[in-house]
Amino acid sequence: EIVLELIKALRGSVTKHEATLLYLALSTDTGCFQYSNTNARTLEAAAELLKRGANNAEVNLKFFRKISPARMKLEGMIYSGMSFHREGKVTVATVTRQMMAQAGATEDDCDDLAGLPGKAEGSVVSITIREQEDGSSKISVRSMPEVSSSDICAVFGGGGHAMAAGCTISCPPEKAKRMLLAVVDEVWK
Question: What pTM does this model have?
Answer without folding.
Answer: 0.84
